[in-house]
Every structure is written in structure tokens, then in C-alpha cells.
């Protein structure tokens, strides 16, 4: 019997579930679940290892390297964060998280085409702030999460941001202050504008009450935070990298 609980759940239920909800399952989801289900199955190919001494034979099935796969994605995440921590400037970074009002989540769920702009806008807010305030080019690596801790749809952006930047004459200038109050308001305006310019007039009319509510109920703007990091630069980078690339279902594995 399969001892990966999640895989067992998918083996037992994916077939009927995908038939029942065919229209609502995006091709990318179908593809990733397919890879996950076939991962490690020798029918999909394997390496054959033979011991030259005793001629013992081992078959090692290929893995799927899928981002949804609980076996592969953890390894990929480790590798990615390790390489990223090597690659980036070895300076202090902060892990910034940009979220939105709960009432707006559904709009993004129904208009997933806005998600790329959503992430890009968050990056732009950060870049523009440091450019204006400190006249520097800041370094940002951004990742979009569409899931929350309860696996609900909850789009938010994680960013790894250098606490310093390059001036026009190529010098490095450091700073440590993040003006959360200001960023929250700017981010709120940017998200509301993004929705307004992406939807048709009719769609806009429908979501107008939600936009109004999101504006009025968040006087201080949408929640933006950046937890203080401890430890050396490399350890911080590794931690943030793993967090940004964390697969959706790994949290569930741990909690079970
Ligand atoms: Zn896999
Ligand atoms: Zn997240």
C-alpha cells in the first residue's frame, strides 16, 4: 500500500473528482496531479543499476520533478533556495509579504489572468519606494502564493528585498527602515486600480461593493509585513527561499 498519505488520497479520489469537476480543473492542475500520481512508478521509466561484483540488479524509478509532488517539490525547493542564497548579493535582506482584503480574493480567483500583474505591481511598489526615497535600485526576488494556510484561495506576494541598493554611480547604499504605513496605503491603491483597469464595465459594476468595502474597511491600507530576520545572511536567505518556494501541500503533511 502507498505510504504517502496524500498520494493515497489522490489515488483513491482523483479519478472521480476530476470527472465531476472537469470544467473547473485547469490544464496545469491536471498535468501536475498526473505527474504526482505517476511519480516513482517504474512504468514511466527507471534507471537500471547492476553491481559489477555480484550482478545484483536495482531498478530506480525516475521521479516526476513536479511542483505539486510532495516528494519532488521539497527537494526542488531545497535546491532552489540553496542556489539562490549563493547567487544573490550577500547583504541583509528582508522577507516582505503583501496581502489583500479577504473580500477581493474571489475576484482574483475568477480572473486569474490578473495574478501576474498583481505580483509585478507589488514589486513595483517596493522598487519605486526605494528609488524615490534613497535614489537606489533595489534587488527583489518575488514569488506569488495563491494558497493560504488552510489551502484556501488567498493570493499574496512574498518578496526577498535587499536592504540596500545601487546608486546611479554604482555604489552600494544600505538602509534598514521599511515605512509600512506608507507601503500599505500605496499597495491598497495599486490593487484597487489594477482590478478597475482589468475588468469590463459590467464586471466592475458587479464588484463595486467589494471594492468599496475593501477601501473603507482598511483605513490603514492592505496588510504588508516583513518579519525581522535573525542569523547570518546565508541562513536568512535559505530560510526565506524555502518559504517562498514552499509547495502548497507540504504544510498539510506536517500538520497531519
Ligand atoms: Zn515527484
Ligand atoms: Zn505565502
Detailed description of the structure:
By secondary structure, this protein is α+β, with helices and mostly antiparallel strands. It folds into two domains: 5-61, no CATH class; 89-255. Helix content is 48%, strand content 18%. It is built from nine helices and seven strands; from the N terminus they run ααββαβααβββααβαα. The strands form two sheets. Strands 3, 4, 5, 6 and 7 form a five-stranded antiparallel β-sheet that branches. A two-stranded antiparallel sheet has the order 1-2. Helix 1 (5-20) runs antiparallel to helix 2 (27-38). The protein is flat and about 70 Å long. The two termini are 19 Å apart. Residues 251-256 have low confidence and may be disordered. One zinc ion (ZN) binds at residues 39, 63-64, 66, 69, 71-72. Residues 9-100 form the Transposase zinc-binding domain. This is Putative transposase. GO terms for molecular function: DNA binding; transposase activity. Residues 139-249 form the Transposase IS801/IS1294 domain.
Task: Compose a concise summary of this entry.
With 256 residues, this protein is of the alpha+beta class.
Structure characteristics:
single chain; alpha+beta; 2 domains; five-stranded antiparallel β-sheet; two-stranded antiparallel ribbon; flat; binds zinc ion
List the helices and strands and how they pair.
Layout: H1 5-20, H2 27-38, E1 46-50, E2 57-61, H3 72-87, E3 93-98, H4 105-110, H5 115-134, E4 137-147, E5 153-166, E6 172-174, H6 180-198, H7 201-216, E7 224-225, H8 233-244, H9 250-255
Antiparallel strand pairs: 1-2, 3-5, 3-7, 4-5, 5-6
Helix pairs in contact: 1-2, 3-8, 5-6
Bound molecules: zinc ion (ZN) (2 copies).
Amino acid at each position: 500500500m502507498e505510504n504517502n498519505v496524500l498520494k493515497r488520497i489522490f489515488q483513491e479520489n482523483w479519478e472521480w473528482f476530476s470527472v465531476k469537476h472537469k470544467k473547473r480543473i485547469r490544464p496545469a492542475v491536471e498535468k501536475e496531479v498526473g505527474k504526482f500520481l505517476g511519480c516513482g512508478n517504474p512504468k514511466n521509466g527507471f534507471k537500471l543499476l547492476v553491481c559489477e561484483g555480484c550482478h545484483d540488479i536495482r531498478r530506480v524509478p525516475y521521479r516526476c520533478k513536479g511542483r505539486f509532488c510532495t516528494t519532488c517539490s521539497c527537494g526542488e525547493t531545497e535546491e532552489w533556495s540553496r542556489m539562490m542564497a549563493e547567487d544573490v548579493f550577500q547583504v541583509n535582506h528582508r522577507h516582505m509579504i503583501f496581502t489583500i482584503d479577504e473580500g477581493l480574493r474571489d475576484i482574483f480567483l475568477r480572473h486569474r489572468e490578473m495574478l501576474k500583474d498583481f505580483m509585478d505591481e507589488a514589486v513595483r511598489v517596493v522598487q519605486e519606494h526605494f528609488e524615490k526615497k534613497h535614489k537606489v535600485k533595489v534587488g527583489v526576488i518575488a514569488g506569488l502564493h495563491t494558497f493560504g494556510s488552510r489551502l484556501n484561495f488567498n493570493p499574496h506576494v512574498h518578496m526577498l528585498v535587499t536592504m540596500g541598493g545601487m546608486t546611479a554611480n554604482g555604489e552600494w547604499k544600505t538602509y534598514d527602515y521599511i515605512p509600512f504605513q506608507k507601503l500599505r496605503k500605496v499597495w491598497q491603491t495599486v490593487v484597487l486600480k489594477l482590478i478597475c483597469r482589468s475588468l469590463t464595465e459590467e464586471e466592475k459594476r458587479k464588484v463595486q461593493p467589494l471594492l468599496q468595502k475593501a477601501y473603507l474597511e482598511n483605513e490603514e491600507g492592505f496588510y504588508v509585513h516583513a518579519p525581522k530576520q535573525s542569523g547570518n545572511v546565508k541562513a536568512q536567505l535559505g530560510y526565506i527561499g524555502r518559504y517562498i518556494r514552499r509547495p502548497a501541500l507540504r504544510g498539510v503533511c506536517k500538520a497531519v
